[in-house]
Write a structure and sequence with these properties.
Helices cover 51% and strands 11% of the residues. It is of the alpha+beta class and 518 residues long. Strand 8, helix 10 and strand 9 form a beta-alpha-beta unit.
Length: 518
């Protein structure tokens, strides 16, 4: 890349057609290399700094790097930077800050030529975008099928072959090839080892895909240790960030901005080893079902993480959990965890990439292995608590020996497990203060797995009345009742604070189907 500045004659203000041709030639040669080289050449020609600022990605290219913040601020508030020259370019804003001695005509020519070349590069990238998006979707499907070596080898080949043939003058070299040069170089070298997965849903997925594609791909160049794949699978937008185990949060920030702008809901899982891509994929879907407009991105490790679990005595809790889960293989536990997190078998099937019938059949088989009615709300709450128990590496007990007593039952917790003062304080802090009719209605609704019609029938109230009461419960508790894991905790808290049966027959009434406040 040329770093030669303007000549003394140009600095003195003598600028003509020959200088314009030389300037255009230098910019054109830089543009054939990359957008970063083009912006750097523009900065050198005006003897100042240059930034291509994107409203989502921030500074796409910046020369020098320290000017990135100034360039983004100038693009957002041009009136506060009158000395800067700004032009729209390829969906972003080109900001040039020339040296005081640079002629205005020269600066204007550099800005106009650079913006035009950026537009050409953007149009060329758009022509190849459909093919590149299909490639990304294929790579994501291969990862989900377990073909991790094929994907990493493909990325490595893109570094040497596909980059030279497809991306010589486009953003392919910047977005897929050059970044994987470091990530996959050499046999047995520094290969990509981990993945972080985002799954987004919403009405504006196609537009969000285009925006996120543009925001992520050009800005990969400074982050040579990672490669981001974006694909649309079954109406969802899937983002898979491949890296070396360290997630710097850059893609998370971009996904967060796009989610807010396009009103999407997203789940996030990882970093996990690349071989566990299917687990990360299903975990992200489970987390997405806990997202709300107030919290549009939910990490998987925050879903099902009970605030109750840390309050339980570690040794009996871990021993009980290991006992009840002893008949299950790790794959069984993962299926149950996804089912309990998503709150329904069809959602679990979508998260796991299985049919709903397959999930139902497997859950019936697991119910037989566990000797429990997995359709019971209390059993489900206990099962989720068991699945979140500390394992041997987390300070819990070692696995039980083969000759240990038979497994405990899920229908009841061990004596004393929920009797501690800390647990009682947690339970009263969560559901304390609910009016009697709200408490009874909430408990009945939870027993019916959050189905309003059968709960209203048992309570002998109209569905609209019950819906109104549940809204008041959510407001009083400051909890998202649409979250299956929140409902499980509320069910346990109601049982821990129960003085008598929360029986619909005890609902305070005053004639007909009305009720009275106590």
């Amino acid at each position: 890349m040329s770093t030669t500045g303007t000549t003394d004659r140009e600095a003195a203000g003598s600028w003509g057609a020959r200088d314009g041709r030389e300037t255009a030639g230098r910019l054109l040669r830089a543009a054939t290399r990359s957008g970063a080289h083009l912006v750097a050449e523009a900065a050198a020609l005006v003897q100042g700094w240059a930034v291509l600022a994107d409203p989502i990605a921030g500074a796409v290219y910046s020369t020098p790097a320290s000017a990135a913040a100034d360039g983004v601020h100038a693009a957002a508030a041009p009136q506060e930077h009158p000395y800067c020259v700004q032009l729209p370019a390829a969906g972003a804003v080109l900001v040039l800050a020339p040296a005081p001695t640079t002629p205005a005509e020269h600066t204007g020519h550099v800005a106009a030529t650079t913006a035009a070349l950026l537009e050409v590069r953007g149009q060329r990238a758009a022509e190849l975008r459909g093919e590149q998006m299909r490639l990304h979707t294929t790579l994501i499907r291969l990862l989900l099928a377990g073909h991790t070596s094929v994907v990493t080898e493909t990325l490595g080949r893109n570094t040497t072959t596909a980059t030279e043939t497809l991306g010589r003058d486009t953003a392919v070299a910047e977005g897929l090839g050059r970044d994987t040069a470091t990530a996959t170089e050499g046999p047995g070298g520094n290969r990509l080892t981990h993945v972080t997965v985002y799954r987004l849903t919403g009405a504006d997925i196609p537009a969000a895909h285009q925006v996120l594609w543009r925001a992520v791909r050009p800005s990969l160049d400074p982050y040579a240790g990672a490669c981001t794949l974006l694909g649309r699978l079954d109406g969802e937008l899937v983002v898979a960030e491949l890296h070396h185990g360290g997630d710097d949060g850059r893609v998370l920030r971009l996904v967060s901005r796009v989610s807010e702008r396009h009103r999407l809901l997203a789940g996030m899982a990882g970093p996990l080893p690349l071989a566990e891509m299917p687990t990360a994929h299903s975990g992200a879907a489970a987390a997405r079902h806990s997202a709300t407009p107030d919290r549009r991105i939910v990490p998987a490790d925050a879903v099902g993480t009970s605030r109750l679990a840390p309050l339980l005595p570690t040794v009996p809790y871990a021993r009980w959990a290991e006992s009840v889960l002893r008949p299950l293989a790790p794959a069984h536990r993962h299926l149950l965890l996804v089912w309990l997190r998503t709150g329904s078998k069809p959602r679990a099937a979508a998260a796991l990439g299985l049919s709903a019938g397959t999930v139902r059949a497997r859950i019936r088989e697991l119910a037989r292995l566990l000797g429990a009615d997995l359709e019971d709300a209390t059993v489900q709450a206990h099962l989720l608590l068991a699945l979140r128990a500390p394992g041997p590496d987390d300070g819990g007990n070692a696995p039980l020996p083969p000759g240990a007593p038979g497994p405990d039952r899920l229908a009841a917790l061990p004596d004393g497990l929920l009797d501690g003062e800390a647990v009682r304080s947690w339970a009263y802090g969560l559901v304390g203060g609910l009016e009697p009719h709200l408490r009874i209605a909430l408990a009945c609704w939870l027993r019916h797995h959050a189905r309003t019609a059968p709960a209203a029938a048992e309570l002998h109230v109209h569905r609209t009345t019950l819906t109104s009461w549940l809204g008041r419960c959510a407001e009083h508790l400051a909890q998202n009742l649409a979250d299956a894991t929140v409902r499980a905790e509320l069910h346990l808290a109601l049982r821990a604070t129960r003085n008598g049966p929360d029986d619909p027959a005890a609902l305070p009434r005053r004639g007909g189907r009305t009720y009275r406040r106590l």
